[in-house]
Amino acid sequence: MLYSLSMDGSTTGLPGGSLAFAKLCGAGNDFIVLDGEAARSAPGAETIRLLCDRRYGVGADGLMLLRRGSGAGAGGDDAAFEVDFYNADGSGGMLCGNGARCALERARILGWIEPDRAVGFRFAGRDYRGSSLGEGMARFELDPRVRMDAPRLVRVGDLSLSGRFVDVGSPHFVVDVAAILDGDGRRAFGSLDDVPLDALGQAVRNHPDFGAAGVNANVTELLGATLFVRTFERGVEAETLSCGTGSASSALVRWRDGELRPPVTVVARSGDELAVDFEAASDGSLTRLSLSGPAIQTFEGRVVALPLYGQAVY
What we know:
Layout: E1 2-3, E2 19-26, E3 29-35, H1 45-52, E4 62-68, E5 81-87, H2 97-109, E6 119-123, E7 126-134, E8 137-141, E9 147-148, E10 152-156, E11 159-167, E12 171-181, H3 197-205, E13 216-223, E14 226-233, E15 238-240, H4 244-256, E16 264-267, E17 273-280, E18 286-294, E19 296-303, E20 306-307
Parallel strand pairs: 3-4, 5-6, 12-13, 14-16
Antiparallel strand pairs: 1-20, 2-3, 2-19, 4-5, 6-7, 7-8, 8-18, 9-11, 10-11, 11-12, 13-14, 14-15, 16-17, 17-18
């Protein structure tokens, strides 16, 4: 059965009975992007879940609502634009690095910002800077005030995982695939591809050591000077093809452990490359942190109705 769209949970639907959107992809992380001038408020959580459903809706890892700002300053009232971000499960309020890069590219396409010019913008209530680099690339400048804990041991069944908790605006637990050991203390998985991340990632994501909010789970493998990263994302509740904050967190862990220097090339599950660049003061604190890589608008469209799993939920 089909039901018309609504933005606020009512059954009345939008004026005209449809919702215009753009679809953008950042290194395999894909997003539904709404223009705040056409959609004044974000959809409700259930509508977001349906829109992001890959069978019942458009399909995406998340949804963003962009609103044009008044300038190109560091943020707030001077921000070039503002972004409300929501995961595929309807939860919001967290940073998404690939989402921020896609938002920059969408803002350029809309004519809100100029290419190759750094601008201030607000994402999930916090101020950042970044730029659309043209040709489907964007650079996002994260807050360098990063939290990184000392290594800790997390147990999942018979496995022990030695890794670090990192928060670059979204929380991650980062572990080297070689540091996942079985009950006999031997390496559990021969390579990154061997890790059953849907099961292991879900267990880490909900591990009591990380509290009720949980954590994103990253497993990494360093081959030469290239860092390969897989991510189980909180809010998507599955492995995604890429995660910007997870890539940044994983690169920083390898740097802290003395294995890599910036810029770090990260290869996502999609095969796309992301560049994590940063600078540190003499005391080890970061003074700059950026994430660069592909951000492509794949298409624009209009949703006129959604099949709501056989029942009306609006």
